[in-house]
Amino acid sequence: MNGSALSARGTELCYETPMKSLACGPKLVRLGLLLCLAALGCGGKGCASDQALKPAAKPPEPTITLRFRPLDRLDYREHWIYDLQVPGTGIMRNALSFDVSLLAKVDQDSFAVRELLRGQQILRDKVALPLPDLSGAFLVYQWGKDHALVAEISAEASHPVAAAALRSAAQVARFGTLIEYPDQAVAVGDSWSIEPRRLVVAPGLEATLRPSYTLQSIEERGTESVAVIASDVQVDVVPAPLGEGASIEGGGTASGSLRVRLRDGVLLEARTVMHFSQQTSLQGSEILGYREFSATAHVFTTKQDVQPNLNAEPYILENPEDDRECAALLAAAAQRFEAAPAHQHIYLASVERNAALPSGTGGATLRETGVSVLLSADGKRLELDGVPVETKDFARLLRTALAGEAPIIYLFADATTSLARVRALFGSLPRPVHLRLVVRDPQAKLPAPKTTHWQEERVRAALFAARQTERDKRLSDLLVAHLVLCEPALAAFQVALAAPAAWGSLRAELLRQLGTCGCSSSNLESLEATIYALFGSPDLRYVLVSKGVLAKSAESETVAELAKALSR
């Protein structure tokens, strides 16, 4: 009706335009008002205020209070599966099972819990390794009501070594179960952090952990309520010094989830994945080596009479990819080593004197072991197997040294040294002794390996040391710094230290093990220069000096002229 409204009261018609009020009787007016209010969403008692038209506020989120409070008893079995993948060592799995029981309520805020070992396995790449008998061994924890570790973990076993090994395993596994409950009640979505903790994250490796947690959800499992908590941990390696100017540093992250029973705060399950990196840092910004590794931890509980097959736990770590470039670098180094001396104790007094050796071609590689004699250019410095000696004592000490060695003498003499000085020292040698003059073959000389400034300083400090024992120690420390991020290579060096017979094959073994760790674990050029300082470089050769040749030499001749005459 063209914007008009029509209403009826009996037989009376009431016409109303939108701009005018109703002109009907009281009943009709009330009816019209009710219709209007209904159209506006108001009740018969009048429209509510604008505030009442807004949606009702949500009720507050329910909160929970997490507390460790095993007030009755604990009688479950806890299982740990800890996988660690470090380059060069494969995947190591430590799997343990414990029967858990409550020892005592120590005070109102802490509880002593005992975990009796029921089974342990250590596997490398799924192959079981031999273990000592740990029957009857157990751990004791003291947990606070916030699940903080109140006292150090203690371990008892039939042998102290076994107890120490079990305690170490518990310390390593803790990073996967680390949690402390907040003081206040929390709701889903709330987060909290705890104070940094220093823990063992791998054998021999300590780190500072900075954990934070978020309550993700609350699950109902039958009659039990379980809190699901996400964890996010920042990991910083505790720096370890490696001699002068070098240290191991690193860091990473660990993340996972935990399930906690609300009734008593018992941790029912935890899964954690850690990604980690380490580097050997030198003075300044130089890096001597770098590696990455990862670890996973899975802890869960079952009834005490249940023993799952922990070997069936899936491996989620990935094997490293083949590195063709690294293999080529190691093969080239191995080829250079084939032309280098193959035995220990090639004593060089300094980098400068090392370069001052006479030149000679056609010599032979230093393979056989022997006694080394170093003679300075002015003839004043005389060393026998790295130990300074007086000229008057030289012949006697030389005979003693040769008694326990092959009758071979390697003479390291400056090119400008007078042959008269050499003749005075070796003119009366017994016939079976072979005098070998060490020379540098210019035809075999290779480009010097590129080294760090730090490494050059360490080699120079080692080779200038007054006594051979100090030189050996400094060079050994330098080699350790190159190998520390490749455990198999470091182990090979330690074997050679204990068994000198292993020195001959040490360099090849180091390269083989570095192939499993990856070339990033050590600066290969700097490592090669260190090996040359220990054994001698590929251009090092010797020429045989007979008594007759030495006797015929003119008084004015030098070692350089002798080397030239003996070259061919």
What does this structure look like?
The radius of gyration is 40 Å and the shape is elongated. It has 3 domains: 5-53, no CATH class; 76-320, Roll (Lipovitellin-phosvitin complex, beta-sheet shell regions), CATH 2.30.230; 330-560, no CATH class. Helix 4 runs antiparallel to helix 11 (506-517) and helix 10 packs antiparallel against helix 11 (506-517). The N and C termini lie far apart (128 Å). The protein has helices spanning 26-40, 50-53, 160-173, 324-338, 351-355, 391-403, 419-426, 453-463, 468-483, 487-498, 506-517, 524-535, 547-552, 559-566, and strands at 5-9, 12-16, 63-64, 76-86, 90-107, 110-124, 127-128, 138-144, 154-156, 186-187, 191-193, 197-202, 205-221, 224-237, 240-241, 246-261, 267-282, 287-303, 364-365, 371-375, 382-384, 387-388, 408-413, 434-440, 540-545. Helices cover 27% and strands 34% of the residues. Residues 1-46 have low confidence and may be disordered. The protein has 568 residues and is of the alpha+beta class. The relative contact order is 0.10. It contains 14 helices and 25 strands. The strands form 4 sheets. Strands 4, 5, 6, 7, 8, 9, 11, 12, 13, 14, 15, 16, 17 and 18 form a 14-stranded antiparallel sheet that branches. A 7-stranded mixed sheet has the order 19-25-24-23-20-21-22.
Summarize this, please?
The protein has 568 residues and is of the alpha+beta class.
